Amino acid sequence: MKYVVLGSSAAGVNGVRELRRLDADSEIVLISKDKEIYSRCILHQYLGGKRTMERLCFAEKDFETLYGITWFKERSCTHLKPEEKEVVLENGETVSYDKLLIATGSHTFVPPVKNLKEAKNVVGFRNIEDMEVLKDAAKHAKHIIVMGAGLVGLDCASGFLELGVKVTLVEMAGWLLSKQLDKRAAEAYQDAFAGRGVKQYYGVGIAEVTLDEENRITEAVLTDGTRLPCDFVVVTAGVRSNVEFLEGTGIELSRFGLVYDETGKTSDDNIYGAGDVSGSSPIWPVAVKEGIVAASNMAGVPRKMTDFFASKSTMNFLGIPSMSLGDVNLEGEDIEVEVKKTKDSYKKILHKNGKIVGAVLQGDLAYGGILQQLIARKIDVRRVKKPIFDIDYSDFFHMKENFEYYFEEE
Fold it and tell me: What is the pTM of this model?
């Protein structure tokens, strides 16, 4: 058996680990654009000077030797031949496989803003090369605009703050982290960033940028007509899956990215997918598990992705910890909302027919473990005869005579 893995981030690296754990003898080939393994989740700490390249690495120092793999570094896959079971690299070289894991991730998408694609002083926030450009920009740019105030946008703003650079956030949604937080929880971060000198514009986008004779941005015009001085733009709002090499192969793609089932298998029985390449922007732990599940099935050990809530994020910007699960902004007559506020914390749970569909914790995350058990076990919170925020493990776990804890489904 010969396994080929495309991509060396969370899904790809953990896919390699799982393949070797389950199959000690088969050949494993890793192909990646990157020459080093590093975490994209903490790139802002590299930008801010809090971590070195070495401290971004999440793999073992002797990764290749330890897992007995062949690693083609700084190579891109430009085409796939499913019938021949071959991947084609940019230099024309072909690599055969018996089972293939596609974990090629995604890339920055520059939105169709007038003049933006022609501009020289614009970059994304996806890889180590982007960070080197931004480190240099931080030395001379006076008016940096960050497009997007999602998780990546706030990472970017935080990294610049570590360098003493105060950026401007421009976000189309009505508040920051609109996919993770409600307006109340978002305000805590908005106030904190404002207190650090970060200007913020919500509910607007960039309509166009003005260029000088060298195609460098000098000004940004927002959709409400506001004109902002600007000498650098960081695009964090849009990404596209790295699936261009699959065009014309017959492998099923959605408008977001590669399509695969809960086992990781694509429309081709010998090809699996995991991570950002799906276009669903999975958080790091989900990408890791998708890589493990796909690799397990490639090696003949059946597994499924079954135990993840649709969306889960934990974050800590400017010393304010938050956890978000599911959709925290759902509305409707059948949605019940429970809120508890204290001076230092904010908790909100949404449930429908007794099952939790969304939650946000901010300030105090101690309830997070119980919350995740309530969700994972699909516990009907209406059956627990106490306020929802007073629920503890004893309300749904029981103890046997030998002191072993167990859960009994209703």
Answer: 0.87
CB 147 within 8 A of CB 237: yes
Separation of alpha carbons 41 and 43, rounded Å: 6
Q: Measured between alpha carbons, how far is 182 from 360 in angstroms, rounded to an integer?
A: 8
Order across the sheet with 232-235: list the strands.
Answer: 122-124, 232-235, 144-147, 168-171, 199-202
Q: Is the pLDDT of residue 154 over 60?
A: yes
At 270-318, the pLDDT tens digits run 999 999 999 876 678 889 999 999 999 999 999 998 755 546 788 999 9
Largest interatomic CA distance in the chain: 80
Nearest to 171 by CA among 157, 160, 184: 157
- How far is 122 from 57, CA to CA, in rounded Å? 26
Both structure tokens of 4: 């080929």
DSSP 35: S
Q: Which residue has the tokens 């002083």?
A: 121
CA distance 194 to 259: 41
Q: What is the per-residue pLDDT across 83-125, written as a single tens digit (0 to 9) for each?
A: 999 999 999 999 999 999 999 999 999 999 999 999 999 999 9
Paired strand residues for 265: 272
Spatial separation of the C-alpha atoms in residues 36 and 74, rounded to whole Å: 9
Which pLDDT belongs to residue 282?
65
H-assigned helices in 23-126: 43-47, 53-56, 63-67
Q: Which residues contact 321 (CB under 8 A, 6 or more apart)?
A: 314, 315, 362, 363, 365
